[in-house]
Write a structure and sequence with these properties.
This protein is of the alpha+beta class. It is 32% helix and 29% strand.
Length: 112
């Protein structure tokens, strides 16, 4: 049986998400013009400080996640602490809706 991921206390979660994103950005190699543009776009859309936000999942489930990017008018990237990865969410009248695109923050961001 796999252990649930360690979830920091709410007051530590913003710093935890920031550290994950910073580490990923340091490891992302902008070795092509496309990758360089992706990193620049991600940096521009990134929130100054992650904050909690309720995300909707299929089946009517909701979960508190953490903002990573501002919405571009249709999509945003959020961190799912219970899963330990990032999610691409579509904007809806009811808040962000998880659409099943998960993984590293920059890869999720570049999916659209």
């Amino acid at each position: 049986m796999q252990d649930a991921p360690h979830i920091p206390a709410p007051e530590q979660m913003a710093a935890h998400v920031e550290a994950l994103v910073e580490a990923e950005m340091r490891q992302f190699l902008p070795d092509t013009a496309t990758r360089a543009a992706t990193l620049a776009d991600f940096s521009r859309m990134r929130v100054r400080r992650p904050r909690p936000i309720t995300v909707n999942f299929s089946g009517g489930i909701t979960q508190t996640c953490w903002s990573v990017t501002r919405s571009n008018g249709a999509y945003s990237v959020l961190y799912l602490p219970t899963a330990g990865y990032f999610s691409l969410c579509v904007d809806s009248d009811f808040g962000p809706l998880d659409i099943g695109v998960h993984g590293p923050a920059i890869a999720v961001f570049s999916a659209v």
